[in-house]
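ERR on first pass: missing label on line 2. Operator R.T. fixed the label and resubmitted. Corrected input:
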Amino acid sequence: MALKQTMRRRVGVTAAAWLVAFLIFFPILWMFLTSFKTEADAYAIPPKFLFFHWTTENYAEVQSRVDYFLHAYNSIVLSIGANLAGLLIAIPAAWSMAFAPTKRTKDLLMWMLSTKMMPSAGVFMAVYFLFLRAHLLDSRWGVGFLLMMANLPILAWMLYTYFKEIPVDILEAARMDGASLLNEIIYVLTPMAVPGIASTMLLAIILSWNEAFWTLNLTNVTAAPLTNMIASFSSPEGDFWALLSAASVLAIAPILVLGWFSQKQLVRGLTFGAVK
Amino acid sequence: MGSIQLKQVRKDFAGIAVINGVDLNVENGEFTVFVGPSGCGKSTLLRLIAGLEDISSGQILIDGVDVSAVGPSQRGLSMVFQSYALYPHMSVRNNIAFALKMAKLPTDVIDQKVKKAAGILNLTDYLDRKPRQLSGGQRQRVAIGRAIVREPKAFLFDEPLSNLDAALRVQMRLEIGDLHHSLKTTMIYVTHDQVEAMTMADKIVVLNKGSVAQIGSPLELYNRPQNLFVARFIGSPTMNLVTGPSAAKRGAATIGVRPEHVSLSTSEGEWPAKVRIAEHLGSDTFVYVEADGIGPMTARLAGEAPGENGQRVFITPQEPRLHLFDKDGLRIKR
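pass 2 clean. output:
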């Protein structure tokens, strides 16, 4: 009797999980399907789900209108570059907070986190004019720098929680073995923290990839990443849904693939703080 | 050369003196043990010598040179941690070689030294394993190997045997003793286990609440404890302490006698008592009694001795083996 109940329960829970997953995934699925429709089918009411005339004309149109590879290149360079640079700053910062905390460390952590609570629109004018004066508009360095700064609190916080998991006496053993502080970080801390650093980087790359506000407002042609590409298909002529869908699918494809292959690390990274 | 001197070393944590003005001299080649109850500051003192913590005042000298401002990596000491603190991402070989790599020695010299250390500690077959693939005792040996290979001025051991089971502890105790014998390097060893202290040490430093209670050889501490704290701490079962008229008539505020230095009789003796329980170990018998007007006492008798719950007995101390203490708990010299 008990076995049957457990089986029933498992089937029930699995079915519910699949349902929730389907509901969450549905917008992306719909977008994917729409990208293969003609504009007329895209607007059809009642909506056509699977049975319509499948076409790749939208993808061809996107390719002809914009330079996908330039935008993709910018997205990749900005996401990875900004966060690698951020790591160089966040690792020592997290080290100091985890292994040499002072009375003020907790306050510092809260303050860093609080900067993420501020809406970007609040500082938009100031940043825009700074970039204008410094000739940084539409430059990869400029927007890359900003993306790095925006992610620093997250990088520092997540690395801090991972570093706290590392037993301090292993680092002390390294000191007794004659390692300077730099050697301690390079040879002992970083290799031990690699899973944590990987999770942090993945999350940060995804956040930067999706960052639309700053990329749309501070870049134009040269440094425009995929977010700009999607936005360019929302025109005053009206929204061409099928076209927009095709552009969006192209924009999120790389990051979806990355996320799929690294889902274990992502889940670990996102839930880590909660478990302790 | 590995002599270490502490002069009036103090360590404050948040305004509280954790180490309270310690003076200490460790001669080159000596095996010194820091022993004391939990929280007495023995690990802190070791970490101050290692340089892992800064002293609040005082001086630490290694071979006559003041190292108070020198970092742990430059003091020329090696430490074996209670948790072993092995590098989990490195093989045994690389764990042992790490210090030499930091010292930028040539690869062939490193290989040779690692091989030698592994040979001494029976680790040659495990050189390519990772720490997680080793047993507790093997990990302990790797930790020791890592310390040996640097040829330090002194070894610092922070309760290295606490995480091992009883049988392994005895074996490792002997191995560390052998190591000291062959290397002849100064060793400072922290433990809360007085058996380890008594069996391994040339010199014992008994610490209590951040201050030194007594420094001496194991037998000195056993035969001539300078205060009540040391008298109670060294020796198992604990020394019997008696106040009141028995002490006063001998000119002391408290007298102490070890359980092995009393005799038990059913007919006559100094202190009448009632047996609470007798533990028969075959080689010894421990008789726990409630002495009238005094309280609990322990007698240790050789071989098999009679003793039943509730039995009335008399306990008599051996006069020459009595310890006398004044009202401040300090030893009265006879």
